[in-house]
Every structure is written in C-alpha cells, then in structure tokens.
Fold this sequence. Notes:
One of its GO terms (molecular function) is phosphorelay sensor kinase activity. The chain crosses the membrane at residues 18-36, 56-76, 82-108, 120-140, 163-185. 63% of the residues lie in helices and 10% in strands. It is α+β, with helices and mostly antiparallel strands. The protein folds into two domains: 11-158, no CATH class; 208-422, Histidine kinase-like ATPase, C-terminal domain (Heat Shock Protein 90, 2-Layer Sandwich). It has a five-stranded mixed β-sheet. A hairpin with an 8-residue loop joins strand 2 and strand 3 (362-370). Helix 5 (105-115) runs antiparallel to helix 6, helix 8 packs antiparallel against helix 9 (255-285) and helix 8 crosses helix 12. The two termini are 48 Å apart.
Amino acid sequence: xxxxxxxxxxxxxxxxxxxxxxxxxxxxxxIAILNYGAFDEYAGAVPLGLSPxxxxxxxxxxxxxxxxxxxxxxxxxxxxLATVWVLAGTHVLVGVPILATELAVVVVAFGTARWGSxxxxxxxxxxIPAGAxxxxxxxxxxxxxxxxxxxxxxxxxxLAEQWQPGAIVIxxxxxxxxxxxxxxxxxxAGARTTADLASxxxxxAEADRAQARQIAxxxxxxxxLARDVHDVVGHSLAVILAQAxxxxxxxxxxPAALKTTLANIADSARTSLQSVxxxxxxxxxxxxxxTPGLDSxxxxxxTSGHEVASTESGAPxxxxxxxxxxxxxxLQEMATNAMKHGxxxxxxxxERRWPDGDWEATLRISVSNVAAAEPATWLPDWTAGQxxxxxxxxxxxxxxxxxxxxxxxxxxxRFTATAWIPVRRSLP
Length: 428
C-alpha cells in the first residue's frame, strides 16, 4: 500500500523523527546516570557481575539504541523493528534493566504500520502479541518497576499467576492501538494517492479529448477548405472551358463575338481567382466569406454558352451565412456537374422553391440536364468523384439531404440532383 521513504528524502521529513529519537536517547541517558548504584534494588543483581560504571555505560548504550529506533521509525521501519527486538533479547538474556524511555516503543509500532513495506507490516503485526508475551513472561518485574513510577500498582501486588493471560492481552492492546492508528493513516494516505492518481488520469483524459476535438476541428476545416476550393475551381474551369469551346464555332468574320467570348473568359477567370482568395482569407481569419447570390450562378451558366431554364417559386427568405453558403456551393456544384456531364444542345433546368409556410422550412434546389452519350473528358481528373461526395457531406452537415437520380425521360437519359437545405438554424 505504501512504501517507506527513500533514504535520500528531504531532511525536513526526517527532522521530527530525528528530534524525537534524540529526546528519547537523552532522557534515557539522564535516567541511567540518576539511577547509578541502584540497580541491585531494581533488578536484584548486577547484570553479568558488571561494576556500576559499566552498568551505567550499558544502559547508556540501550538508551542510545532506543533513540535510534525511534529516529528510524519513518526512514527505515524494518531497521527500527529489528532494533527493538535486539533490545528485548538483551533484556531477557543479559538482564539489563528496562528504562522508562523504552515505553516509546509505541512510536516504532506506529511507524512500522504507517511507513513500512508490506512485509514489515506483517512482521510488526506478528510482533505485537509476541512482544506482549515476552514482556509478561520474562520482563514483568521490570515493567512493573517502570510503570510504578507513573501509576499506583499496589492493588495488583497480591494477584496470583492468573494475571498473566490478561496482562498479555492488555499489553497487546496497548501496542496494537498505535499500530492500528498507523494502519488507518496508511489506508487514508493510499486513498488520497489513489484519488490524486484518478484526478491526474481524469485531467489527462480531458486533455486528450480536447486535443482530439482540436484535431477533429482542424480536419473538418481542412475538408471544408478542400470542398470550397474544389467547388470554386471546378465550376470556374467548367465555365471557362465551355466558353472556350463555344469560341471555336464562332464565324471567322465576327471579331466582336470573339472579343465578347474572350471577355467572358477573362471575367470568369477573374471571378474565380477572387473567389479562391475569399475562401483562403476567410479560412485564415476565421470569418465568413461574402456569398454571391444564387442568381449569379444562373447567369454564369448562361454566359458559358449553355441554355438555362430557370424557375423560382415562393418568397425568397434571408438565411444565416453558413446556410446561405451551403445553398450557394450546392447549386454551384450541381451546375458544374450539369456542364460537365450534360449535352450542350439541351437546356439545363434549374428550379428553386422557397418554403411556403413554417411547416416546410427548407429551400429545395433542383438541377436537371440531359446526360451526354459519352462522359466529358475536358475537365481535370482530380475533380472526378469528389463533387457528389463533397456536396452530400455539405448538405447533410447543414441538416439537409441530397437526392441524385438518373432515368430515361422521353427516350433521353436525364440526370437530376435535388437538395433540401434548411433556411433556419436547427435548435440546439
């Protein structure tokens, strides 16, 4: 759940533990010096027959080692736990009296549960009942001596041997309380870490979604730009090439007609160049390019030399800029396809029907022409297959629909494209 801090952790983290360890070691040294010569009274004998001086020195070592265990409880919980067990073995085997400062072992119990590895947590959990048994079975007299300095134990003086099981339970509970407190804080820290990681994951996912949306917008803008350039260039080339072809059939002795045709070609090229510039500038600046009227497209068809039968029904209505542009580009592509695939000796039919009431809020645009026996080859190959797909995507993105039909009418193959385009924005 939680790994111990790395030895190279900032000294500020370790400073409180080091200060606590120094305090415990200093108090232990003071107790050892103040009780010089009184160990026979406490322990019943001098440990291993040592002189009082050496006995004080031994207790000073115990005090320092206990302080070190406290100082290592966060930085190295495993080492702190091992140190406590070494001290317990020293008390049992050597008979060194217990110092009051060794009650700070509860800090080690807390530290092993809070900062120890999984193995240390299990070892510390097993050490709690084991330590209580060792304390009651082998160190009971020393522990009573230490506790008598803090509480009155006279009521327990005449208890029989049956007190030991209860004392073991009490001792385990006293050690278990700080251990459980460490476990509670460990779990809480793990939950906070999990929550922090979850927050990071959520933030990363949100950033990924934002990036994906930005990429999608860029791709959509690129696709829209490609469609607009395709529509403008394709339509202009169709008009220019149709006018150039018609010029081949002008009488040789009619220079005025030839000049008119060349002027129309120049006007178409100039208009095409201006339209491309508007499309590119609008894309770069993020503004809507001005949209010519639908009538201009019909007139452009006529100047190309095609016969056009144009009808318009209903009252024209103002449209939002994006829908107006959709209607213009759709009719533009329809007219381009009609010039590209239609017969020049048959008229192109253009119908526009505006909505008559609120129940029908769409503009119906239909372009029909007699298909040529052989497909035209005078337009560049890069326009093949792109017009209908782009037109359908454009109309559907605006909330409309497109229908393309090819059937025989009076023995002639007639190609009809019909689009229904909303005249108002859809409600969100």
